[in-house]
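Continuing the batch. This is chain 6 of the set; chains 1 through 5 are on the previous pages. Same settings as before, nothing changed between runs. Recording input and output for traceability.
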Amino acid sequence: MKRRWALFLAAAFAISISAVTTAGASDHSLSGYAGTYSCAAGNDHYSMVITSEFGGRAIRVDSHGKYDSEYIVTYVPARGVYVAEYADARGGYEVMEGRPSGTAIRYHEVYPGKTDTMVESGPSAKMFSETYTTMSNGKPQSFSDTCRRLP
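Output for chain 6:
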């Protein structure tokens, strides 16, 4: 399940999971991220398609790489957090919760393991970077990617 993030890093799991921002903080609308992105994680290159859901209150992120994955990102105003729900074609799944912090969103896993973290840096509707950290054999292992919106 952990290898999936090297290909995803993305967001996305943004929450996403990935292409989420604090821009428009008053309504936290995510609809501005709808579009197609080109992503790179090391030597892996993949596409990501983001569609607006529920009147801009959520986005669906479909990542098309070595392993197809999908996640839904929503903003929960009562708690001031983004929630990203991730699933992939190999049966992997995860739920993360993220709080805006300056120009980043800091996520932590809430299900199933509560060990993984992700930081989404400089999110905007044109570009974002993510660093996902997981525990492997008792040691932290990090994967990073960058996604750019296609014209």
